[in-house]
Amino acid sequence: MAENETLECITEHERILQEIESTDTACVGPTLRSIYDDQPNAHKRFMEKLDARIRNHDREIEKMCNFHHQGFVDAITELLKVRADAEKLMGQVTDTNRRLQEAGREVTAQTEEVIRCRIQQRNMATTVEKLQLCIPVLEMYSKLKEQLESKRYYAALKTMEQLEKVYIPRVSHYRFCQIMAENLPRLREEIKEISMSDLKDFLESIRKHSDKVGETAMRQAQQHRTFNSAVAKQASTGHYTKPMYSLNGRTHTHNGLMIEEDSGEEEEADEEVLTAQDLVDFSPVYRCLHIYTVLGDRETFENYYRKQRKKQARLVLQPQANMHETVEGYRRYFNQIVGFFVVEDHILHATQGLVTRAFTDELWNMALSKIIAVLRTHSSYCEDPDLVLELKNLIVIFADTLQGYGFPVNRLFDLLFEVRDQYNETLLKKWALVFREIFELDNYSPIPVETEEEYKHVVSRFPFHDTEIEKQDFPKKLPMSQSVPQIYTQVKEFIYASLKFSESLHRSSTEIDDMLRKSTNLLLTRTLSSCLQNLIKKPHIGLTELVQIIINTTHLEQACRYLEEFITNITNVSPETVHTTRLYGLSTFKDARHAAEGEIYTKLNQKIDEFIQLADYEWGMAESDGRASGYLMDLINFLRSTFQVFTHLPNNNNDHASMSGKVAQTACMSACKHLSTSLMQMLLDTELKQISMGAIQQFNLDVIQCELFASSEPVPGFQGDTLQLAFIDLRQLLDLFMVWDWSTYLADYGQPTSKYLRVNPATALALLEKMKDTSKKNNIFSQFRKNDRDKQKLIETVVKQLRSLVNGMSS
């Protein structure tokens, strides 16, 4: 086992020695370390092995030195012999070199001169060659400068592109080319700034010129619309040539007619057709667009342009505060808007994608909403119907103009219906003043007609037909007053004024007819009715005037069918059409007539009250004067004269005769009832504490006069004693006290056949208590007379029975 280990150790030491001999000295460290890492004392054996190997090598070296020593000695001997010959040769070479140097010094100088010339020639050729490369670059740069100075920026950008891609790369290593290349981006930025500045100037310019552009466009649209109207009237007579109008060189369609270009007709036209280019220079836009396109920044330009135009649109759509005061304010507003969208339409078709149809539609929708809001607000301030009418015409031309450029305008025509309502409101206000003035100036008396010419003049203004009056000789009087033909004429004028608004609205005859009838109905039912109601309520309008108002409203009511025919003749729409609106004049004038009748009743009652206030009864008188009171006789005379006025009410046909009789009868009955009620209230007045039998007798004389007036038939048509029944309550009450028939009253109370059926126990009690107090105070010695004592007891007994009746009624 020990022998095997010794053998392995020897083999390992041999390998290590071979590795040391064949390995670089710097790498021996790991090998030596492995010796010490092996078995203990292995390094000693290795050192022994190493010493043996060193001795072995020393022997081999010694053998080799001994073998080559003689040859080395012989070589040294030969080398010493050669040294002497080498020294001799060196002297000869040195001498030869000296002589050669002296001989070639001149040749060297000439050769150097030739070399220098050749170098100069080569440099010159190189310079010429480089200059030939640089000259085009310099020429192009010079051309670029000239283009910039002449403001041909698009060409300058093309030149820059050639410089960068073709010329500068050939000589890019030269400093001046590097400076040029560094300057080109700066020049591009300058061009962008300059072109943007030109664009801003253009935007400012078109903002100033939009008014003129819009004015021209709207004028041409108006001329075209006028021409179409004329053509529509002559369409059946033959062929005609359509005019061309354009603001951007394109044809437009109006009402379905295409306006086609015809160079021959254009040359023969009286007036030159202006285009947008004639009024606005668009070159800055085109130039700026091309520049930004070349620079690859087109999107930035498009965004900037659209943003600025949106801002301008908002400025254009902002109206002046006082725009509603004059039509010129509206015209300037519309001109600016039309000019703005005409320019946008031109840009849309003249450029590729700078603005799109979607962008213009968005602008138009925004503008349309703002325009409608502005017109709604400002039109509401308009009080002049003429201004509203001119505004409507402007809106129509405005809509037609923009419709010709492809913008939808239906909402504008819808707005016109709102403006129409505003127009009608202003018309109604204006006609309200007209009606008031007519009513104020009217004398409320029948129209006197002296001659046939005057009669025809009145009949020409108002459809009056009366066979009986026509048969009368001149001079004669027409039943209505001057206000009737004036009102009728003004209603027709209102219809004409309302019709003006309906023109050019592209509406059918049926729709126009409906609008006219509705507006006329408003005039009749609201304006005229209100004026009539106010007139009737005025304090200075007396009974005579009220009677004339009833006559007037009757004739105006009859004239309503002529107004229906008048509207039908204007619109050519048959009144039998299903949806035709009817005029409400009948109800208007009936209401006014009823109001006048009611006012007659009210004024009669007020007049009766004024007379009643003049009554001055001596309630404690012993006996009556034997005649009726003066105030009552004056009142009855007033009533007689008043009811004679009702004979003037119209009765030219059975309906009017019955109507007039009914009004007179109602007024008479109302007056008698009010008089009876007032007299009864006078007796029962709580402030009246005492009433004597003499006062009762005097009061009875007054009531007798009232009954005589009622029985005299102040108004024909009453049956029997109908009018006298108004005083039946007073009559029965006074008879009860005059006859002193209390036994009959109390015995028959509550029976239908009672003689004093209309006497209320409470009324009798109140009056009896006033007389009881009087009986007590008239004679302080009445208690000592048997008759007076019996009468006083009777009164007290009746009072108790009446109180029991009153209490029984209340329970």
UniProtKB/TrEMBL annotation:
Record domain Exocyst complex subunit EXOC6/Sec15 C-terminal: where: 412-770
GO biological process annotations for this chain's record? Golgi to plasma membrane transport; intracellular protein transport; vesicle tethering involved in exocytosis
* Domain spans labelled Exocyst complex component EXOC6/Sec15 N-terminal: 49-218
What's the superkingdom here? Answer: Eukaryota
| One Gene Ontology CC term in the entry | exocyst
Pfam families assigned to the protein according to its UniProt record, in alphabetical order = EXOC6_Sec15_N (PF20651), Sec15_C (PF04091)
Listed A to Z, the keywords are:
Exocytosis, Transport
Q: Which Gene3D superfamilies match?
A: Dsl1p vesicle tethering complex, Tip20p subunit, domain D (1.20.58.670), Exocyst complex subunit Sec15 C-terminal domain, N-terminal subdomain (1.10.357.30)
InterPro entries for this protein: EXOC6/Sec15, EXOC6/Sec15_C, EXOC6/Sec15_C_dom1, EXOC6_Sec15_N, EXOC6PINT-1/Sec15/Tip20_C_dom2
Q: Which family does it belong to?
A: Belongs to the SEC15 family.
**Functional note:** Component of the exocyst complex involved in the docking of exocytic vesicles with fusion sites on the plasma membrane.
What name does the UniProt record give this protein? Answer: Exocyst complex component
